[in-house]
Structure formats: C-alpha cells, structure tokens
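Cross-check.
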Amino acid sequence: MLKVIDDIFDKESLNQIHGLFTAHSHSAVWTTNGGLFPEYINQNPGCVLVHMLGKIYVDEIVKYFIDEKIFTRAPSFADGFLYIGYPGSSLAWHKDGHNDFGGTRTAISVYLNKEWKDHWGGWFSYKDNNEIKSIIPKYNRAVVMYDDYDHCTTVIANEADRRFSFQLFFEKDALNFNYGK
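Predicted model, tokenized:
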C-alpha cells in the first residue's frame, strides 16, 4: 500500500524543516546520491545533494508523527535526510526495504517546494502490479510507502528550480496502517 498525505506538517514544523535547509545550505555537510548509492551512479544523470539529519532532528519528526497518529510508536530505527535535486538529476529505480538494523525499513518522502510546475518533472514514480504510476511533488505532500515498491524520481527539467525534499527511513512496524481511513 502507498498513501499520499497532503499538508502533512503544520506551519511551525514546516518552518523548522525549511530552517534546516537554510542552516546547512552553505556548509560542507552534504554528499551526493553517487556517494551514498554508488551502485546507482551510472543510472543517475545530474546531481542530488543529500544531508543526513542528526538524531535530535529525527527524534523531533518521529515525535510529531506519533502525536499526529501517523506512527503508533517510536520506530526502533529512523534516519532523516534532506535532498536537493538539481535540474538534470533523478534517482534510479530502487527499493528502500533493506537495512542493517533488522526489521523491515520503509520511507516517507515530503516535498518542500512552495511552487512546482508539473512539466518540471521530479515526480515520484512507482511500480504497482507492473503498472508505473506517478505522484507530483506538491508542497507539503507526503508519500508514505507501507510496502516496498520499486520507485524512482523522474528527471528534473533543465528550466526547473532545485527540488527540495525530506525523507525519513524507519522501521515499517511503527506505521499506523489505519491513518487517514
């Protein structure tokens, strides 16, 4: 199951996440998608910058998701990342279900551009029963993967802005499967 949740964060939480981009945008704490995922480097044109968030920030987001009933409890593991996708960049087809901590890992992706035009690309695409479906990266929209889908990000158009997003990877069993029903 995959679920789209619009307006996942309240205004204060969104401001805090935007603040993280501002605080880290000019520091040497970024890597690239090729540095993190060398097995995909030949499949990914362009550059995606990636910044791993510290535990204190991840714990705040986990607490928010518990308070909002998106999680039923704190996951046994969670990692948060800020992503900046540049024009010409993409992420190759992959699954998030592997991890080194035991349990099954899954992810929530949240899109943070206040304006994103459909023709700019950067869509979240996934395979569902051999059919490819896509989701537009709308502001404050979350894609919650309850199952381990093959997924990718389509190429960001040359005329597009940089694409900002936040990803949280965590233990699948912490998800509230009834959220939003």
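The CA atoms of residues 70 and 179 lie 6 Å apart. The first strand starts at residue 2 and ends at 6. Passed to J.P. for a second look.
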